[in-house]
C-alpha cells in the first residue's frame, strides 16, 4: 500500500535552538488546538524545577536513566527485543495493558497511559481530520511502554520512558538534568564523547543508536516485516523520535540528520504539540471512540503482531 501524505503547512520556523534554561521553543502550529496555560498540576508544562509532588520522582528517574543508558546497554537491548519473541497480540490488547502504568518521567500527568493515548489521538483528530494515519500514530506512539509489564521483562522505568538522546556521541547540554551524565561511563570514553562520536555528519538518524526505551521498541515492532504495518515514513519517524526533545524542542543533534529526517521532522513538530499539551484530567469516553480507532488499526496493521 502506498500512503500519500500532504505536507503540513508550517508558517513558522521549525528548527530552533534554545539554550538550557531558556524560554520554551514549543511550536504553536495551526490545526485548531488551543495550548492550555498549565498542566494537570497547575504548573508550566515540562518545568523540571517547579515545586510539585512530581519533582523528586522525576529528577531521580533522570539521574538513574542518564547513568545507565550507555552505547553497550542500548546495543544489547535492541538485539534482545528486536527478536520480537515475547508474545503475539493486537494493538488494542496492548493499549489495555498500559492501564496498569503511570510514567515516572512525566512532570505533567499522573494518569494511566490509556488516557494520554486517547487524549493525544482525539486532539490530533480535531486538528487534522483528514490525516487518519496521524490519528493512529497518536494512539499507538507510547505502546512500547509495555516493556514495563512482567510479560515483557518488567524493565525499570529508566529503561522505558523519559526523553531520549543519541548514545555513541557527546551528550548535548540541553538534555534534561544533564549533570547526571557525568556518572555515565560513556561520558569519559574518548570513542563516544566527541560531537560525532561513532557517527558522521548527515549520516541519518536511522544509523544512530538512541537511548533505549518505548520509542525505539515500538518502532522495531512497527517496521518488522512480520508485522506488515503500512504506516507512512512520517508516522514511523514520530513513533521513534517523539521523546527526542533535544532535537525537536532545542534543535540539537541536527548535524546527524539527512534530508528525509528533516522532512519528517516537520510532522514531528506538528505531533509534539498534541502529545505534550493534550495532557489533562479530562477523561475520554473509551467505548465511544473505540470503533473509530479499531477501524484505523485494521487499516494499517494486521489483527495480531509480534512483540
TrEMBL record:
It is found in: Cytoplasm. Fe cation binds at residues 116, 141-142, 214, 242, 275. Its cofactor is Fe cation. It is an enzyme of class 1 (oxidoreductase). Its main location: cytoplasm. Keywords: Ascorbate biosynthesis, Cytoplasm, Iron, Metal-binding, Oxidoreductase. Pathway: Polyol metabolism; myo-inositol degradation into D-glucuronate; D-glucuronate from myo-inositol: step 1/1. GO terms for cellular component: cytoplasm. This is Inositol oxygenase. It comes from Urochloa decumbens.
